[in-house]
Amino acid sequence: MNAHHNVSRRTLLTGGLATGFLLAFHLPLRAAPNEPVQPPDVTDGKFAPNAFIRIDADGGTTLVMPQVEMGQGIYTAVSMILAEELDADWSKVQLLHAPANEKLYGNPIFIIQATGGSTSVRAFWKPLRDAGASARAMLVQAAAAQWGVEPASCTTSKGVVTHKASGRTLAYGALAAAASGQTPPKTPALKDPKDFVYIGQPFKRLDTPDKVNGKAVYGIDAIVPGMKFATLAQCPVFGGKVGKVDDRAAKKIPGVRQIVVLDDLVAVVGDHMWAAKKGLDALDIEWNEGPNAKINSKAIWDDLRAASAKDGVVARSTGDIAKGLASGEKFEASFELPFLAHATMEPLNATVHCKPDSCEIWTGTQIMARVQSEAAKAAGLPVEKVTVNQHLLGGGFGRKLEPDMVVAAVRIAKQVDGPVKVVWTREEDIQHDVYRPVYRDTIAATLADGKIAGWKYKIAGAAIIARWLPPAFQKGIDIDAIDSATDVPYEIPNVHVEYVRAEPPAIPTGFWRGVGPNNNVFAVECFIDELARKAGKDPVAFRRGMLANQPRFLSVLNLAAEKANWGQPLPARVGRGVCLQPSFGSFIATVVEAEVDEQGEINLRRATSVVDTGIAVNPDTIVAQVEGGLIFGLTAALYGEITIEKGRVQQSNFNDYRMLRINQTPKIEVHVVKSGEAPGGIGETGTTAGPPALRNAIYAATGVALRRLPIDRKLLAAGKKA
Amino acid sequence: MSGKMRILTSVVVIGVVAAGLGVFIVRGPGPLDFAGGTKVALADYRAGKPTGVPAKLEKASLVERGEYLAKAADCMVCHTKPGEKEYSGGLSFKLPFGTLYSTNITPDRDTGIGNYSDQEFLNAVQHGKRRDGARLYPAMPYTSYTFMTDEDVLAVKAYLFSLPAIRAKAPDNTLSFPFNQRWAMIFWSAVFNPDTRFTPNTSKSPEWNRGAYLAEALAHCGECHTPRNLGFALDNRKKFGGALTAGWRAFNISSDKATGLGNWSDADLISYLSLGHAPGHGSASGPMGEAVDHSFSQFAPEDISSIVAYLRSVPPVPSPDLPATTAPVAPASHKDGVTADARGKMLFAGACASCHGWSGESPVSPMATLTGTWAVNDPAATNVAQIVISGTKRHTPDGALSMPAFGNAYTNDEIAAVANYVTARFGTKGSKLTAKDVAELREQTAE
Amino acid sequence: MHMATVLTINGEAKSFDAPPDMPLLWVLRDVLGMTGTKFGCGIAQCGACTVHVDGKAVRSCVLPVGAVANRAITTIEHVGSTPAGAKVQKAWLEAEVIQCGYCQSGQIMAAAALLATTPNPDDSDIDAAMAGNICRCGTYVRIREAIKHAANGKQS
Ligand code: FES
Ligand code: FES
């Protein structure tokens, strides 16, 4: 196995993008389970024109996935884009996950090899089309050469080159060897979108058949011969260390094999997870909790509120904000969002086999190459001695943009003879997350003649980018934290946006589905509703009035209002709320209809989203992503909050970190608008849309202007007024 | 009010109250009076050995005997704050008039009982008198422990002194006036502490006598299961008739057929005490679950049988507020049976049904079966709500069985709704808890 | 402590060494290598670990193996051979229910158990049977649709 990887790595390093053989590691998508790694194909007679495409002599077409599949349907979308420009035979398409290789598979938006930020289709749209078109051009050239005709006189369809005039045909497989000798075109001709045959059609996903019968292999399902099972406890207080460990009772538990004590964590290795878990429970661990044992939510909020009162770094300033804020009646509000855990359905895990001179890892990560380099550091090995076998992810949501789970597993595995699968309990997963940070956004705005004259917006919160992608952190501005704040769609003459970096002490923070737009869309859209009410206008009409030059926004807003029966009468304590958002390169309007009962409890009745995401590669996946995203966002709005007491997270599992369930889920309709524009992102759009739309529905139903998530039922009980 | 005035007033108030109550109640029966018969001094009793440890431990060391007795007296649970070292104290007791904290009973000299002489230890356990002379509040059940023999109390002391000394000072009690006047407990104690050692009853069997000693002197069953009078002392006129203690309902364990143990078989009682579960009667949770885990489950089988024999002899005291019968198995379909309370049903479907089943018969474990349990049959739903709030973790021979705590993420309205749904579906009568009731229950158990 | 235990899983007798208190989930995943059944919470709150015991949906993460000897266990790997399971799998693919898929073994097991006893479930039946299964990706809308399609054999 390792030999293969050595070959592949060398080849990739020396081959480069255009001519290198494409050597990737099979994801167990169509392979037998538990064989995640297939030998790379280095035999002759293959056509491997670039990093993404390989065609066998029998026509088998392997497409290489630069982005990881975590439910968003990206394997299918990437395949459709490649197959479209390649004119591949869809029935012959097979998928491989790309190996760790930042040069070949780096996300063009992040530079590094990462899947996140709803960027996959946006970032890879052009490179994948180029790759497909270039390969297709080479196949056509090979056929034309064989027939002695002009390439321009040939057409392609479903994996076959046809010379129209003579009616001759050659299948791609038959051309594979010859095509390898062709020179790729400098600028391959791309199809006119109106000629697309795959893109825009509702394609069945490629990853789902094995997900209905238990065959799909996630990281947690990796089975390596001879492996042991481990689970771990990290110091419950962030930054704390292990003091004393009494393992006498644990060692007596049948199936417990080894206790690994590191400076900040303890792991129990056993014959199965049950032994490991019981062993861990039986350990008597004394922690040195360290200075963070005093941290609590209240102090964190006090600090953040103080920080948000300071001036920030200016992220945008148009017009004259002083003048703007001096004209008309002024209103101000602050909006606060809590810490959130990701709670991916698949708890954190990594299987690792560390040997003195190599380290092999089986896991599902959103950052393969970074995991490889961080693992190398932890193992004390050069990067090329570390192999990462990428698996399906049982949810990502940003959690697996962090390498910590693999690093911890490698550190444990270094102490273990043979492979070990390290699985976090749900409690450990929730209590040692990298949390969506707390945010406090303050808006001051003026209304003159029923329109917004001045808009001063200040974001206060952690700069995740500064840690995660330092080169992108410029001039004190976190481009993620301000996302969707600097580009509000509304026509406002005087706009001023500031960012105050405020890092919570000791609590690790990171990306969470919806990222920066989560806080900004929430604050902006909630406050717009409040201003509409001040102006005595209907929230949709108020927005409409500021969108004269925004046709795409205007059309999704109008359609959403129509589909959601906006304006039609509702029973008492039922309201509709709207949200319009510019995030992730898509244009989305959402209406949520909700009822607030006498006790202040919320019943979700209906959600309607209208989506203009440019060219919809696989429209059904887009609908599914918005449905799921809405539920993810609504879950957070209703229940999501991680609180800290004595330096530790108080939530632990689904009993106290609640999830929306099927019997609370409203009817959801998603309408995808036809568009010829370049595709936008979609995976996170529903998540950012749900909370403000729900909040505005509650505002309409009760008159209570909530300014904080999660929703506080106590403020909503009947009889309470705004 | 000046300090002096205050003390004076309190003397008067407490004196008057105690005297008044004393007259009214002091003649209330003692815990063993119901049995009648002839009593003899322990030293003169020849039929058996009601005190001390079971036969298999007769030859054991003093410390080992003390350990058995300490567990039988269940010292640890009250003297341990969750997450802290055993016996190091600090557990809070919410009372209507403030909060008490249990003390450190490890042999630490500064913060524990390391300086206690034998006599001082006896004074504390049997008389409620601290080493410094101050009076203990009756949260410490010295009115029960007073029945223990000196020998047994000192064995417990030997065991406690064999433990590692832990430095841990319990927080100060936060009692309101006049209850913060410890010395007033002198009067309380004078009125309510029988202050006698156990005297065997020759009209009863040796087994009964052993059971009586275990149940009254050590396990202090009455402290939770016997209702209290106005003076906050046990009202043995209603002995074992059930009571609300620390936010939980301690059920009727008298021999009443309908609402007490009268219809339980010996096997049921033995199983419940030693395993915390009896088929058809549900599982011990809350304080009783702890008592089983830390105390009864450690008892020798013959001691369990003795307690059962003793319990059987306690006269029936009906609980008029409890339905006389438990409900049968609920319908298998969610659609049949109780339909009220849509929110309760919604919550039950999401968080409860997978373990408890729509019928109330658990597909997972008989311990999670709701059918037939007293908790769901209690129209006050006290224990149902408490278990939902704080969960339960039971250690059973085939592993721990636990239910997670939902109190932190579910609102009082929701907990009331699910408790009302559960008691209506699986009990005879159904409860009508409100959010306010739940808030009060939380108050009483807040740690 | 360890005793040889024999269970009937997917119609086959499987013998293994495990303490009787070990939840069936870990026997399936870690001892028998049947990883289709998933671990999500370990406290019966998510449903990812759902299997059938005598045809009923049960959370294997809290089900001690000692309690299931002599009972027929069916897992996601085999549910397709039951009529209800096969219908559900088909409907799931037709309605394109699945996102990350991690919860879906449990969802499918719960849905198959529902259809086996309630061939024509209405919304309230679906709520009662499926509310214990969390899907973090939020596929609930399609789960509901797919169950209805599976019930009346409609194409999506
Ligand atoms: S893992 Fe069993 S219900 Fe969550
Ligand atoms: S599909 Fe991802 S958790 Fe359900």
Summary of the model, kept short:
The complex is a heterotrimer of chains A (722), B (447) and C (156). Chain B is mainly alpha-helical and 447 residues long.
Topology readout:
The complex is a heterotrimer of chains A (722), B (447) and C (156).
Chain A: H1 2-19, E1 47-50, E2 53-55, E3 61-65, H2 74-86, E4 93-97, H3 102-105, H4 120-147, E5 154-157, E6 160-163, E7 168-171, H5 172-180, E8 228-234, E9 241-246, H6 248-251, E10 256-261, E11 265-270, H7 273-282, E12 284-288, H8 297-308, E13 313-318, H9 321-326, E14 329-337, E15 349-355, E16 358-363, H10 368-379, E17 386-390, H11 404-413, E18 420-423, H12 426-431, E19 439-448, E20 451-461, H13 464-468, E21 494-501, H14 517-534, H15 539-544, H16 551-563, E22 574-581, E23 587-596, E24 602-612, H17 619-639, E25 644-645, E26 648-649, E27 667-672, H18 685-702
Chain B: H1 3-25, H2 62-72, H3 75-78, E1 92-95, E2 98-101, H4 118-127, H5 142-145, H6 150-161, E3 174-175, H7 185-192, H8 206-218, H9 222-225, E4 243-245, E5 248-250, H10 266-275, E6 277-278, E7 282-283, H11 286-294, H12 301-313, H13 342-356, H14 374-377, H15 382-390, E8 392-396, E9 399-403, H16 412-426, H17 435-445
Antiparallel strand pairs in B: 1-2, 2-3, 4-5, 6-7, 8-9
Chain C: E1 3-9, E2 12-18, H1 24-31, E3 50-53, E4 56-59, E5 72-74, H2 83-94, H3 104-117, H4 123-130, H5 140-152
Parallel strand pairs in C: 1-5
Antiparallel strand pairs in C: 1-2, 3-4, 3-5
Helix pairs in contact in C: 2-3, 2-5, 3-4
One FE2/S2 (inorganic) cluster (FES) sits between chains C (98-104, 135-137, 139) and A (71, 345, 395).
Quote the distance from N terminus to C terminus of chain B. Answer: 33 Å
Quaternary state reads heterotrimer
Structural class of chain B: mainly alpha
Mean pLDDT of chain A: 92
